[in-house]
Write a structure and sequence with these properties.
- It is a single chain.
- The chain is α+β, with helices and mostly antiparallel strands.
- The protein has two domains: 205 residues, no CATH class; 177 residues, no CATH class.
- It is 56% helix and 21% strand.
- It has a six-stranded mixed barrel. The chain has a two-stranded antiparallel sheet with strand order 2-10.
- Helix 1 crosses helix 13, helix 11 runs antiparallel to helix 13 and helix 13 packs antiparallel against helix 16.
- It starts with a helix and ends with a helix.
Length: 413
């Protein structure tokens, strides 16, 4: 595509002499801009991918892929409904549950929380919970003994074996008003699922204890359905609706978290567009540096033309000169971006140790670690985009160089 003569001239123009120092400075800024733009785009996209994947995996690990509920009240005779749901094709497990809001009281301190109750065997088969226990044993998850998160235990000063009081919002009516229903429980398990919201605001309880506490004897208010493939949960939704026969409603995990997932998608797209502007600005720097180079090399171009160089050869020389800046910047930017994204958590901890500031607060970003997933199709798209912009930036200056009239350029020399 390029002859040895064209490659030699392009390389010589890239090595600017002292008299052309300003041109080389602009070219250096163009190289740096493209390198930083590509690296930043790869890092941010990797973090966004990791953030979304980590959140979705934890949400799906803690919540059902689909939920069956009744707006009319608790579900009675729910075991027959569980049997029908288990026979639906594509369903891997079904868990009857009770979920309700409570107030946790310890030595005068109170904190709102959500109680999520399920059978002990179902609790043990939830890997994200059973595999995240930091204190206590699974055998301690029993009647009057519950599981709480690390943040809630720190906030209320609770350890294994400590007791606390739960107050339900609905209580008994009396001549003096409504008396809140309360019961004392002990801490049997402390977990850390890596999500601040669950570590701080959720209490897991066994199903019989919750039925007594919420006065739901032989009833539940939700049934959690796990699909064999989470991405295909919406495809078995119609079968579940048919199985419940109008006795309850069904919604999947995308519906339950639609606003959250949409926000992540919009944020990812906006960040991509904003950071692409860095590469675009660097491409404009290539245009300005190449125009200045063509103006500075006008006499050389004219001499080469009189010696037999064609317009096409001059076009390719300057395209190669400008594109080399973009190619080198893209290559180094991709290497830096991949290396940075692969070690993002270690870099975060290093920066926090130096600055003393918390760069990734659990309560703000939901996760306790900064995740990053490198998707090579994203990196390929970023590299191709940067290369296309780099080549496109050279076309006009190279065309100007190829159209230069040798007679006009040498008339006053």
């Amino acid at each position: 595509m390029f002859t040895p003569f064209e490659r030699m001239m392009a390389w010589r123009y890239l090595r600017a002499r002292k008299a052309e120092g300003f041109v080389s400075v602009i070219a250096g800024f163009s190289f740096t801009g493209i390198m930083l733009g590509v690296a930043t785009l790869i890092i941010v996209m990797s973090v966004m991918n990791g953030f979304r994947a980590e959140l979705v995996s934890r949400i799906l690990g803690l919540n059902g892929h689909l939920n069956v509920y009744s707006a009319a009240g608790p579900l009675s005779n729910y075991m027959s409904l569980v049997d029908r749901l288990e026979n639906v094709k594509g369903v891997s497990s079904v868990r009857p549950m009770i979920e309700g809001q409570v107030l946790v009281s310890v030595n005068g301190a109170a904190h709102g929380a959500i109680v999520r109750a399920m059978a002990r065997e179902d609790f043990a088969t939830k890997p994200i919970i059973s595999g995240s226990i930091v204190q206590g044993e699974l055998t301690e998850f029993r009647e009057q003994s519950v599981a709480i998160g690390t943040e809630l235990s720190k906030r209320l000063g609770l350890n294994i074996g400590d007791s606390f009081t739960l107050l339900a919002p609905k209580g008994k009516a009396s001549p003096f008003g409504t008396i809140p229903r309360s019961r004392t429980y002990s801490v049997g398990v402390i977990f850390d699922v890596g999500m601040y919201e669950y570590n701080n605001g959720f209490i897991f309880m066994d199903l019989p204890s919750a039925q007594k506490f919420f006065k739901l004897s032989g009833q539940v208010n939700s049934i959690e359905v796990m699909a064999a493939t989470p991405e295909k949960a919406d495809k078995i939704k119609d079968d579940l609706v048919e199985a419940v026969g109008g006795a309850a409603g069904v919604y999947d995990w995308r519906q339950a978290n639609s606003s959250f997932l949409n926000a992540l998608t919009v944020e990812r797209n906006v960040m991509f567009l904003i950071l692409t502007l860095i590469i675009l600005v660097a491409a404009f720097n290539i245009i300005s540096s190449m125009i200045m180079l063509v103006k500075d090399k006008g006499k050389d171009i004219a001499i080469l033309r009189t010696m037999g160089a064609t317009q096409g050869a001059m076009l390719k020389i300057f395209v190669l000169t400008g594109a080399s800046i973009g190619f080198a910047g893209t290559l180094f930017g991709a290497l830096i971006g991949v290396a940075f994204a692969s070690n993002i958590e270690s870099i975060r901890r290093f920066l926090e140790s130096i600055s003393g500031a918390e760069l990734f607060a659990d309560e703000i970003y939901f996760l306790s670690q900064l995740p990053a997933i490198i998707q090579w199709e994203d990196i390929t798209g970023i590299i191709v985009m940067a290369l296309v912009l780099s080549v496109a930036a050279t076309i006009y200056p190279a065309w100007r160089a190829s159209r230069l009239d040798p007679v006009e350029a040498l008339r006053y020399e």
